[in-house]
User: What shape does this take?
Amino acid sequence: MSQRDGFTGGLLAGIAIGGLVGGVIGAILAGQRNSSNEDADQSLLKSRLSEKKAMKGKKSQLNSEESIEAARRSLEDKIAQLNTAIDDVRQQLGPVNGSTELTDREGSLDS
Assistant: This one.
């Protein structure tokens, strides 16, 4: 029986010590693995963020190009409206200016 008691005590001590040593080694390796995983995750995250920024930059460039084009069209429309208004005013003032010139000419002819 004394051998059995020694065996049981040794077995329990081996289990406890093995569990502690295994836990410590596992914790150390897990910490190193998490550090490398975090580095890999961070680099992956950074690359994804840079891809998103690049896509956003392209979209904003397209949006800015589209907005520039829309502004250009709007300005062309406004210029066309102003030219039309100027032409209308010229037509309205044309006979007035023409009649005063005729009056001036007639007056100078009479003198």
User: Anything to note?
Assistant: The mean pLDDT is 75. The CA atoms of residues 83 and 89 lie 10 Å apart. The two ends are 156 Å apart (CA to CA). Helices lie at 2-110.
